[in-house]
Amino acid sequence: MIIVLKQHAPQEFVDMLMSSIKAKGVQIDVSKGARKTILGLVGNTSVIDREQIAGYEYVDKVIRVEEPYKRASRTFHPADTVIDVGGVQIGGKKLAVIAGPCSVETPEQIEGVAQAIKAAGATMLRGGAFKPRTSPYSFQGLQDKGLDMLCQAGKKAHLPVVTEIMSADKIDLFLKDDVDIIQIGARNMQNFELLKAVGKTRKPVLLKRGLSATIEEWLMSAEYIMAGGNRNVILCERGIRTFETYTRNTLDLSAVLAVKHKSHLPIVVDPSHATGKRWMVEALSKAAIAAGADGVMIEVHNNPDKALCDGAQSITPDMFARLMDSLRQLAPIVGREL
């Protein structure tokens, strides 16, 4: 349920109304816009007398929220959410470009890529230290050592760092190393205990869509994080599993539009994991921005043919620089900046 207050509702009335609602055991999320204040009610709202509240002088309207996700719903929060990550905004007019290798391999590799993408205009550095792999015999990442390398490379290049967490017991390590965005991978999208754990932090979370997840299931996973108090959630469309085998996954750009319609959360697109083919990355990055995405997440490796994982979908620093030039030309056409 949401309560929309009239523009000039006095603060005394707002405080009184909120106190009476909280006394019934219902939580309230407050969203203040330029003209209206919205109170989003979460919990057992059946104890709330809708007709009584609607009759108050300073209440504009009372609306039942049909979606099972509340805090992630645009009804609760009409304005787009903009998340600040180390001075980089995600969700505003300026596009976010997250780039880096699938996996951290050596200090020279990650630092070289970081400097190259920084020079080309990237806004954040990504890299895997803990790698979820389908085969138990595949390279699983350098773990704690790789995380240290990644964070050091980010500091040297003055780029915020994005990396994936695999289990809740690593949260303290991620916070200690000052990871700027904690990534929840596709395979962990419905790891509810992990979602609850990152929800207790206030660190921005990049939530990737599960391999076979519906948009509602994806937003419900975001709700788990937000229900814990962490509202800094960024969604990432990375392709879903379909019957098609030519590409690694099927990139669902319609999800960008659906999310923008249903939710206020920012969304970025990962064309690298979606296709598994480096020659598709530039065109689909441009398509994602044209569709309304708030940014892209690109895999970049200085020697993709010798990468320890996902080399086929990684582009070189030179290719990334050309991609950035293309995005600079596209951004103003769709009302964005780079």
Can you walk through the features of this model?
The protein is an alpha/beta fold and 338 residues long. The chain has two domains: 2-63, Phospho-2-dehydro-3-deoxyheptonate aldolase, domain 1 (Alpha-Beta Plaits), CATH 3.30.70; 83-334, TIM Barrel, CATH 3.20.20. The protein is built from eleven helices and 14 strands. The model has no long low-confidence stretch (mean pLDDT 93).
Shape: elongated
Helix content: 25-40%
Largest sheet descriptor:
8 strands, parallel
Order of helices and strands: EHEEHEEEEHEHEHEHEHEHEHHEH
Instruction: Look at the structure and name the CATH superfamily of the largest domain.
Output: Aldolase class I
Brief rundown of the structure:
34% of the residues lie in helices and 18% in strands. With 338 residues, it is of the alpha/beta class.
Task: Describe the protein's topology.
Elements: E1 2-5, H1 11-22, E2 27-32, E3 37-42, H2 50-54, E4 59-63, E5 83-85, E6 88-90, E7 96-100, H3 107-120, E8 124-126, H4 143-157, E9 161-165, H5 171-176, E10 181-184, H6 192-199, E11 205-208, H7 215-227, E12 233-237, H8 254-262, E13 267-269, H9 271-275, H10 278-291, E14 295-299, H11 317-330
Parallel strand pairs: 7-8, 7-14, 8-9, 9-10, 10-11, 11-12, 12-13
Antiparallel strand pairs: 1-3, 1-4, 2-3, 5-6
Domain DAHP synthetase I/KDSA: 87-329
GO molecular function, one term: transferase activity
Protein name: 3-deoxy-7-phosphoheptulonate synthase
